[in-house]
Design a protein that fits this description.
By secondary structure, the protein is of the alpha/beta class. 50% of the residues lie in helices and 17% in strands. α8 crosses α9, α12 packs antiparallel against α13 and α13 packs across α16.
């Protein structure tokens, strides 16, 4: 248990460092020294010793995370135009339908006729059909950019965790030396490629693509229709090499050896040898090696027959892997493999024993034993793995399969035979293809059954449903599950006394818990009350406008919303009181999809009392559908001179446009320009107002003086008129932009107009929070 405590502390330290963003090693060194002293003082007590070791591991985990690179040398060339990079391909090429992805370790960059040495990983997206191998020395030409972000997935963060901070799309590739690396890994990749060819030549699609995915972890041959079907029915774990697949393979080998009366120790050695051979065949990529190690832990744990061995060994595996690369803790594949293996260790045996007990009570012994052998693997093993992986699937994919249990019950029993026959056929194909062909045809029957079941259930309209769950609930589930498993394993005296107390005073305990929950709700309601200050947030929702306002009396206003629903809803939900279900005012500055695209999802969650627009007609169906969801009597087209008196000393003025725009007018020429005032502090929100309209506002005698100004059009090229800036006289400016935007915003020439005015940017500070009591002003960022 000591090793488990150390692993938990280490992981907590890594996560804490990532959340607090304390990248300086000094605080963690001080903390480590302090916890070393605590550990020495508490070493005599067993419980306190484990706690002290966990705290020390926490500090060391935070210290290790400070060594994770936050950028690379080559990344300094992002968004600087065309260039040529020389380097070596350091990973197996990822061949897609429309491109080939290459991981390039850069060595030199040539730009504007000058070549300089450089370092850092780059993701190269080459045209489809490009023939490149691992270890090739190549030169690539194109534009280097920062990876992008979408609504629910940050490709930038995903690549950064593997040390990639730059991407080159549509690159032109030239091979300089294709024979540079004849390493073991190159040989393994060549073997994997030959195995892939054997399968594709011996089986038709989609059977060939499915077997390639199951055996080699290569899903590229599966059509989007097949992949989507597996996802809808909750069977995606079948087509990706993970701890679950490896566990099935090792379980089949052990079962066959047991029937051949092979003793446990030699059987375990043979099973481990099969796992090693399989790992080599599929290329020994890091994800496959991790899955093989975790499955090996199950094999050895079964041999040793110690309940604590598997959790302790898994903790050791997670500790070692995260010491090498702390970012692996965020890898979805690692998380799924780890928790699937943990689920098998914690729940497979108890569930199987429970099933056998029920079957023995319901059926004669012969039927009970046979049914138990089938369902024990088909149902109980699947449930054991999915108990621990389903929360992750809900968190990352936000889908819940209604038919997953039934589908897995139907297809899991054949997977063990499918894998063994397919693996045997693939290995035999290297020596004698005709015999292998017969085995491939036999395997096609099992592949056909799997495909038929998955496709038929995927066609059901209720096969899956959207299901979003708070990440804090997921964390709570794992804390309770893992904590409960630890208490069952260690059985500390305090947990026994607590359980006894609860059992003897169940009514009192229940009332106490209910009272505590109610008290916490009242505390939350008290904290969420208006504080008499004006709060305004420029939300970090990408390269779009989205401003959330809470007035001193507690009214809530949303100005635009961007185009990324999940990011917008999360940003709003994190800042509004939990019991708020309405927005008092919604403003759409202009009918631009980049600014209103996410608002339909907002209407699913919040009722809108009043909508303000500039009245410009727009025939976009999405815009029309959005307006149709709000009662016409709650909509108003406004122009210059309209004022919303929100509450005491707080009002919102419309400064532009001067008259309702026509359908043919440019969107940016008529964007609503708002000024929010609370006593002596004012905020100017010009949306994407063009420079011509900025000057037109001044021509009509409008004086847009403001304390804080949002720069129009994301501070892009020629987006700010100097006379307009001089009229506003801001003490601070806001730029809502995204670091991955391809426009180069904010433009350096535009920023140069600001002089010494402080600049707050969402791409640097995250969501920007300004709040004021009407006389003083405070600001902070979420990063």
């Amino acid at each position: 248990m000591r090793l488990i405590a150390i692993a938990i502390g280490w992981v907590a330290g890594v996560f804490l460092a990532s959340v607090t963003k304390i990248y300086s090693p000094f605080p963690w060194l001080v903390l480590s020294a302090a916890f070393m002293l605590v550990t020495a003082l508490l070493w005599s007590g067993r419980v306190y010793r484990n706690l002290a070791l966990a705290l020390l591991a926490l500090a060391l985990g935070g210290l290790r995370y400070t060594g994770v690179p936050l950028n690379s040398e080559i990344a300094q060339y992002n968004n600087l135009g065309g260039m040529t990079i020389e380097g070596t391909v350091v990973a197996e090429p990822d061949v897609r339908d429309d491109r080939v992805d290459l991981r390039l370790q850069s060595e030199a960059v040539t730009r504007i006729g000058t070549t300089v040495p450089t370092q850092g990983l780059v993701l190269i997206q080459a045209p489809a059909g490009t023939s490149i191998g691992y270890g090739d020395h190549i030169a690539v030409t194109g534009e280097l950019v920062l990876p992008s972000e979408s609504d629910t997935f940050s490709y930038r963060d995903y690549l950064a965790r593997s040390g990639v901070f730059s991407i080159m799309r549509d690159a032109s590739v030239q091979i300089i030396d294709s024979g540079q690396s004849k390493t073991l890994l190159r040989v393994l990749f060549d073997l994997k490629d030959r195995a892939r060819q054997f399968i594709s030549r011996s089986l038709p699609e989609p059977s060939a693509g499915l077997l390639t995915g199951i055996l080699l972890g290569d899903e590229r041959g599966l059509s989007p229709e097949i992949s989507e079907a597996f996802s809808k029915v909750g069977a995606s774990h079948i087509i990706a090499i993970s701890g679950f697949n490896m566990a099935i393979l090792s379980a089949v080998v052990l079962r066959l050896l047991a029937r051949a009366h092979v003793r446990p120790r030699p059987a375990a050695i043979i099973a481990l040898s099969v796992l090693v051979t399989y790992t080599i065949l599929v290329g020994a990529t890091p994800s496959v090696v991790r899955a093989a190690i975790m499955s090996s832990v199950l094999v050895v744990g079964d041999l040793m027959r110690r309940k604590s061995y598997v959790p302790t060994s898994l903790a050791f595996v997670a500790l070692v892997i995260s010491v090498i690369n702390p970012n692996i803790l965020w890898d979805v594949g690692f998380q799924l493999s780890f928790f699937a293996t943990l689920g098998l260790a914690l729940f497979a045996t108890p569930l199987t024993q429970w099933l056998n007990t029920r079957l023995n009570a319901w059926f004669p012994p012969t039927i009970a034993v046979g049914t138990g052998e089938i369902l024990g693997e088909a149902l109980m093993v699947s449930i054991a793995a999915q108990i621990m992986t389903l929360p992750l699937i809900l968190l990352y994919f936000e889908r819940l399969s209604i038919v997953a249990l039934l589908v897995n019950l139907l297809i899991i029993p054949v997977q063990s035979y499918l894998m063994v026959i397919g693996l045997a056929a693939t290995l035999i194909a290297f020596a004698f293809l005709p015999l292998a062909q017969l085995l491939f045809w036999l395997d096609m029957l099992l592949l056909g059954w799997t495909l038929a079941i998955v496709r038929e259930f995927a066609r059901l309209p209720f096969a899956d449903t959207a299901f979003k769950v708070d990440s804090r609930l997921i964390s709570g589930f794992y804390l309770v599950t893992i904590g409960g498993a630890l208490m069952l394993a260690t059985k500390p005296n305090w947990s026994y006394r607590l359980a006894t107390f609860i059992r003897r005073r169940i009514v009192l305990t229940t009332l106490g818990l209910c009272a505590t929950a109610i008290a916490l709700l009242f505390v939350a309601l008290f904290i969420s009350r208006p504080d008499g200050k004006l709060h305004i947030w420029w939300l970090d929702v990408g390269h779009s406008n989205a401003v959330l306002i809470q007035t001193p009396a507690g009214a809530h206003i949303l100005v635009d919303g961007g185009r990324l629903p999940s990011r917008l809803l999360t940003a709003i939900g994190d800042r509004l009181p939990f019991n708020t279900s309405q927005l008092d005012l919604l403003v759409i500055a202009q009918p631009d999809p980049f600014d209103y695209g996410a608002l339909s999802n907002v209407l699913d969650r919040y009722a809108v009392q009043q909508l303000l627009t500039n009245g410009q007609p727009n025939l976009n169906p999405d815009y029309q559908a959005l307006l149709a969801r709000i009662s016409p009597e709650n909509q108003m087209a406004v122009t210059n001179g309209y004022t919303v008196n929100i509450d005491d000393s707080t009002y919102l003025e419309v400064l532009y446009p001067q008259h309702p725009p026509q359908i043919t007018d440019k969107l940016n020429d008529s964007a609503l320009t708002l000024r929010l005032t609370y006593r002596s502090i004012t905020f100017l929100l010009p949306s994407d107002l063009s420079t011509n309209s900025q000057l037109d506002m001044l021509k009509h005698g409008e004086w847009p003086l403001a304390t804080v100004m949002q720069l129009p059009n994301h501070a892009g090229i020629r987006s700010l008129a100097a006379d307009f800036l001089a009229s506003v006289q801001p003490q601070a400016v806001i730029v809502q932009t995204d670091i991955t935007n391809r426009l180069g915003d904010p433009d350096p020439d535009t920023l140069s107009l600001l002089g010494d005015i402080p600049i707050f940017r969402t791409d640097q500070y995250g969501t920007l929070h300004f709040w004021t009591d009407g006389n003083r002003l405070w600001a902070s960022g979420s990063k």
